[in-house]
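anyone else get weird line breaks when pasting these?? whatever heres mine. first is seq + tokens for prot A
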Amino acid sequence: EDEQIVAEIMERRFFPDHIAYKTWEGFHFAGHEIRITEATDCYGAVVWPSALVLCYFLETHSKQCNLIDKNVIEIGAGTGLVSIVASLLGAFVTATDLPELLGNLQYNILQNTKQKCKHQPCVKELSWGIDLEKNFPRSSCHFDYIMAADVVYHHPFLDELLLTFDHLCKNDTVILWAMKFRLENENRFVDRFQTLFDLEMISNFPSLNIALYKAMRKDRMKA
């Protein structure tokens, strides 16, 4: 079953039939052809398989996970593929990443959503753990979904990442997080994450070493 679904996920990718001056990959999701411009010298400007897994889930579970008119934020949006698919499925999306990635992120989102979406997505800077209350005040920011694909890897900002999840997540917010398992140090982040959130694995793809999780706040019932 894993191999069959993984094959279906990877079939959504297509490549240009000629060499262009811009590096891009193509994908088929939500009834659209999506073209993503990439920069192969930057981790944050490449489409990673975890993003494809999350996009596939959003499309194939659109009835159970109805995004129409929902308020969605993607952290570590990178090239914007997940944000684009969520937008095409009817969500109002805020795509966030580091300032140096916003130009390419904005370009991809505009090229693939303009006049195609119910709500035009917006792009906003978010450096994990920095100025969270200033840029995303708890009193006025309410997200139905937080989405993240491949945000846990060998980087020194795992504490800040957990702080960001905690700040953005209300009691009724659902986190959808696709993670590729690599080194044990990053894998321990899952244990730390579970001190704050109830975590449920909703899909697992051993051949990709990727798991898809759904999470909500532990204290939501008390609230």
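and prot B, same format (seq, then tokens)
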Amino acid sequence: PGDKEAGELGLAAVPGRQAAFRQALEEAVHYARAVGCPRIHVMAGRVPLGTDRAAVAGEMETTFIENLRYTADLLAREDMIGLLEPINNRITDPHYYLNTPHQAAAILEKVGRPNLKLQLDLFHCQIMDGNLSCNLETYFPLIGHIQIAQVPGRHEPDSPGELNFPYIFELLESLGYTGYVGCEYAPKGDTLEGLGWLRSYWESRGLQHGGTSKAAK
């Protein structure tokens, strides 16, 4: 994430911070290798304070593409995948550079490396664009990781909000998604109690806790 005390939230698209980005990436790879995690979120970073987003967009994209190509080459040697996550600028972070899956897909196309993927957080995607079914289908070939949270409260999927998660999970299954779904939300209370939605979902699908079929038992 860079220097949080200085207001940074990632470095990959921030002009002038290329050396710091590469050093941080090497450190991230070191930790990922140690814990056996094959995916790393490459954080784009914020538009520098005091600058106009439109005025620096071109330079930031150029920096981002340069750093992502470097990232792809480094991660390829480790058999790892780099992930780009759009973060909404309406609620969560008005200064974050990468805001929509459309922008991320365009960047990925320009970089052109197979080991860079889209980290699609449905919370951010809903706030920026909605149209989740179509977006999931459109960007599915690019998706390397999914994250979930209810909108607008960013709590458990079964908390009050805009998203129908049983439908979304079934859509992901029908699309053939076999990766992890990250619970990127703030529990309303206790973490384990907050996972009650998952136990209920498994039971509604005729599954044991842990996602195994009762019939198979």
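btw re prot B: Residues 53-78 form the longest helix (26 residues). Residues 4-205 form a domain with the TIM Barrel fold (CATH 3.20.20.150).
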